[in-house]
Amino acid sequence: MTTTISSTATPDTITSGPRQERVGLWLNGARGSVATTAVTGLLAIRDGIEEPTGCVTDSPLLHDADLTPWTSFAVGGHDVVTTSLVHRADALVESGVVPARVLAQVRAELADVEENLRRGYDPLADDETQAEAATRLSADILAFQERHALTRVVVVNVASTEPPVSVLAEHRDLDQLVDALADPARKVLPPSALVAYAAFRAGAGFVDFTPSTGARLPALEQLALRQGVPFTGSDGKTGETLLRTVLAPMFTSRALRVLSWAGINLLGGGDGATLEDPANASSKLVSKSGVLPALLGSPVTAPLHIDNVPDLGDHKTAWDHVSFEGFLGVRMNMQITWSGVDSTLAAPLVLDLARLVAAAHAAGRSGALHELGFFFKDPVGTDQHALAEQATVLRAWASGLKGAPVA
């Protein structure tokens, strides 16, 4: 059975345009909550069951962009777990993330997508060298591309957050890295970076939707440029940080002095369990904590906590307390509560990024795509965090891709 998205969508649910290429979305962590929600949503949009609410590429902001329609996407991926997509989707229905009526209508197609999923890389369980693992992962991507006659593939990492890594000599030079990966006694790259390496070797673009290392090593950027493929990341901006990137510029534009900005995040599910480990949480805290100083123009007291509350599942709550000073030194405060469904907020952005990176690749762009900083807490290649300014950059850049020849 094919998992290629066929041409049954209604015209008003997709972005129109001349681009006719077929694109593969390859998800690392394909059986996780974010990936399953994204695939379920893609199928529902394709079939005209749901509108693409939350998809920026279907909003007025990007109406001039020349993007591949949802009907031309195929889906595959890697994962280290064996839970089926349908089983995961059933669990998401129970937790209120996926509507039951939507799953009922795409269940068979979700089962079809399962046929394109392959075993991922687990450094604790696999005895292969990292060079052998990368070859296997790349071969899976290339076979998927050939099987579905795809023009290009975009790999999106939505696997669990990893601890940060120290940059080694091998991480700085591509030739040294290649040699080190063949050493059976060493694991030079964290899994997310090995996935990026494999993607680039397969000629695929790469997106890291997590705060993990991903492609953010000099040697991997060298490989991306050598292969002529683009990449972007890191850490999708979906909740509390999204709110901060809107509100912090308000204080600076009105000359109000922020004295402190404290935040508490409560979440459950797989993310909550992963981030309960301080080593894993440190990556997330670093990506979140850099936003406020950049936006406010100076250091600020900003304690931030992430707590695992298992019963919340995929529903997360963030509470922020902002203390600020106004005219004549008068102290004031603002308190904000954000309650959202993490996978529901993340999934449409995953789809958007696949579309945009594919368009960039088709237009001959390679290396880091800083113009996609709009989507990330810790964007590559830019220190701009204000959402409004990021949106302006994104729109101009995406419009500039219009009419680019299909490679």
From TrEMBL:
InterPro entries: Myo-inos-1-P_Synthase, Myo-inos-1-P_Synthase_GAPDH, NAD(P)-bd_dom_sf
Compositional bias per record (Low complexity), positions renumbered to this chain: 1-16
One Pfam family of this chain: NAD_binding_5
Residue ranges that the Swiss-Prot or TrEMBL entry lists as coiled coil: none
Annotated region described as Disordered, given as residue ranges: 1-20
Residue span(s) of domain Myo-inositol-1-phosphate synthase GAPDH-like: 239-343
Family from the record: Belongs to the myo-inositol 1-phosphate synthase family.
Name of the protein described by the UniProt record: Inositol-3-phosphate synthase
Protein source organism: Cellulomonas wangsupingiae
